[in-house]
Design a protein that fits this description.
Layout (H helix, E strand, L loop, with lengths): L2 H11 L9 E5 L14 H12 L6 E3 L2 E8 L2 E8 L6 H12 L6 E7 L7 E4 L8 H10 L6 E5 L10 H5 L5 H21 L4 H8 L2
Parallel strand pairs: 1-4, 1-5, 5-7
Antiparallel strand pairs: 2-3, 3-4, 6-7
Helix pairs in contact: 2-6, 3-4, 6-7
């Protein structure tokens, strides 16, 4: 790789001072140290990893969330972690979409899915909330289902009678945490494809 390639990569994938926000990329989770490392915070974990790759941190408080403005593959994007708690995630996301006048089809939501094994991903262009409370809030408050999403596998409950809240708020095992890290890395690559309009490529490459 030449020095010119290095500078080109830096310019495309690092925070830039200006330009209209084209995409809102939201990772879902619950704020607070007690929820760090929980299954329900897979979206937060992934968005933090993406920010780290881009050489920034999600720290600016706006839109009932923590944010960072970045450039990904030449596209201006807002990284967003709602701090409303999971059940009210849509409040934060709607504020950001309305402020930047971004259509919901350019919203990418990253969140946990108990129907997928740890380490697995599923990218979808649209769909229902599927019983996920964070997604339910987004669908209800935007009035839209036609926005892309990246589902992060966190594994199903140990048995049908196991309390769902206890499961999703529980911590990953060491083995599953390693699988989540690998999935988060892949999800970051998905985002980079999706903002280029290459959602089909992301689906073909990473869907489980």
């Amino acid at each position: 790789m030449s020095i010119f390639d290095v500078f080109d990569r830096i310019s495309q994938n690092s925070p830039a001072p200006g330009g209209k926000i084209e995409y809102v990329i939201a990772g879902l989770g619950n704020p607070g140290m007690e929820y760090d490392g929980s299954r329900h915070n897979a979206g937060f974990f992934t968005i933090d990893m993406l920010a780290e790759q881009l050489g920034t941190s999600i720290s600016r408080l706006r839109f009932k969330g923590k944010t960072a403005e970045v450039t990904i593959e030449g596209k201006r994007c807002l990284l967003l972690k709602p701090t409303t708690y999971m059940n009210n995630s849509g409040e934060s996301i709607v504020q950001a979409l309305e402020f930047y006048k971004v259509d919901a089809q350019k919203l990418i939501v990253i969140y946990d899915d108990i129907s997928l094994d740890p380490g697995k991903l599923r990218i979808r262009r649209k769909g229902s909330h599927g019983g996920h409370n964070g997604m339910r809030s987004i669908v209800e408050l935007t009035g839209r289902e036609d926005f892309p999403r990246i589902k992060m596998g966190v594994g199903k409950k140990p048995h049908p009678d196991y309390d769902l809240a206890k499961w999703v708020l529980g911590k990953f095992s060491k083995e599953d945490a390693a699988l989540l890290k690998e999935a988060a890395e892949n999800a970051c690559e998905c985002v980079k494809l999706m903002v280029q309009g290459k959602t089909d490529e992301a689906m073909n490459k990473y869907n489980s």
